[in-house]
Specification:
Helix content: over 70%
Largest sheet: none
Shape: globular
Number of strands: 0
Strand content: under 5%
Low-confidence stretches: none
Number of helices: 3
Radius of gyration: 10 Å
Structural class: mainly alpha
Distance between the termini: 24 Å
Order of helices and strands: HHH
Length: about 55
């Protein structure tokens, strides 16, 4: 959980830097497809990905 929040924090901080934001969003999505991220965090990951695009 702490690691996930750190990623979201970094995503938020790097919103202006598309490349970083996108690669981190892809990492979260990758973990979701492997079932490593709980459902309630999936929504956060999706909104973070939208912010980074």
């Amino acid at each position: 959980m702490a690691q996930f929040m750190e990623v979201v924090e970094r995503l938020t901080l790097s919103r202006g830097q598309n490349k970083d934001g996108q690669s981190m969003a892809i990492t979260i999505s990758g973990k979701m497809s492997m079932g490593e991220v709980p459902k309630e965090q999936e929504t956060i990951a999706k909104s973070s990905k939208t912010l980074s695009e």
